[in-house]
């Protein structure tokens, strides 16, 4: 098994889109936004997931060489010079969570078509005992544990276009597989709220199961 990420940094984003604007969001995301981001030095791969049931509807992340890429002049310049299309789409973002992450653990057989995300209000290091058990489960193809970067994300022209401030999570657990039902069952059995509480006390946990929708590298 090997790491599921190509670098040691990740930008993890959850967002919904205001009713009636999903089609334009997807056109923009594929046709302009992802290519623009992937042209920034240090961006290695982008993945977008979608769910019919989870909230928010979209989960996407960028794999970067290291978390310093997300604080680089080249990347911040893009965030502070949004295109006209970006200015038209981003105000329709709702329930946005955006976290600059360092990869604490990532191991698996490969990227699954289904991913369960857990956003946990706890120190990521306290969750390490869970990951070895998860990755050994036959319905799980890979597991990654991300920790929020110590420096908060900077306010930019792009972030100020969203109606509410972006949220973030101190710990993010990503569980990948091929079968959505089996994956969710394994995740809830091994990484249950009670199992998480035993490691780090009672903590807020937000879960969602998403299907891979688009990948760019």
Written account of the structure:
- There is one protein chain.
- By secondary structure, the chain is an alpha+beta fold.
- It is built from 6 helices and 8 strands.
- An 8-stranded antiparallel beta barrel has the order 1-3-2-8-5-7-6-4.
- The longest helix is centred in the N-terminal third of the chain and has 17 residues, at 22-38.
- The model has no long low-confidence stretch (mean pLDDT 96).
The total domain count is 1
Strand arrangement, largest sheet? Answer: 1-3-2-8-5-7-6-4
CATH class group:
Alpha Beta
Mean pLDDT: 96
CATH topology: Alpha-Beta Plaits
- Specify Rg, calculated over alpha carbons: 17 Å
Strand content: 25-35%
Instruction: Note the gap between the termini.
Output: 21 Å
Report the order of strands and helices.
EHEEHHEEHEEHHE
User: Largest beta sheet, briefly?
Assistant: 8 strands, antiparallel, barrel
Shape: globular
């Amino acid at each position: 098994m090997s790491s599921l990420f190509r670098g040691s940094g990740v930008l993890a984003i959850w967002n919904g889109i205001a009713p009636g604007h999903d089609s334009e969001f997807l056109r923009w995301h594929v046709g302009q936004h992802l290519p623009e981001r992937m042209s920034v030095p240090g961006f290695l791969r982008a993945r977008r997931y979608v769910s019919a049931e989870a909230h928010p509807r979209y989960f996407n992340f960028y794999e970067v060489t290291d978390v310093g890429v997300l604080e680089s002049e080249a990347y911040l310049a893009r965030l502070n010079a949004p295109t006209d299309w970006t200015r038209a789409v981003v105000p329709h973002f709702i329930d946005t969570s955006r976290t600059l992450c360092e990869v604490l653990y990532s191991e698996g057989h490969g990227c699954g078509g289904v991913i369960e995300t857990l956003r946990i209000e706890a120190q990521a290091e306290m969750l390490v005992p869970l990951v070895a058990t998860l990755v050994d489960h036959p319905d799980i193809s890979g597991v990654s544990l991300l920790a929020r970067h110590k420096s908060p994300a900077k306010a930019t022209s792009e972030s100020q276009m969203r109606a509410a401030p972006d949220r973030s999570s101190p710990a993010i657990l990503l569980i990948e597989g091929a079968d959505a039902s089996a994956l969710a069952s394994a995740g809830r059995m091994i990484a249950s709220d009670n199992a998480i509480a035993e490691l780090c006390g009672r903590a807020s946990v937000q879960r969602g199961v998403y299907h891979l929708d688009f990948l760019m590298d």
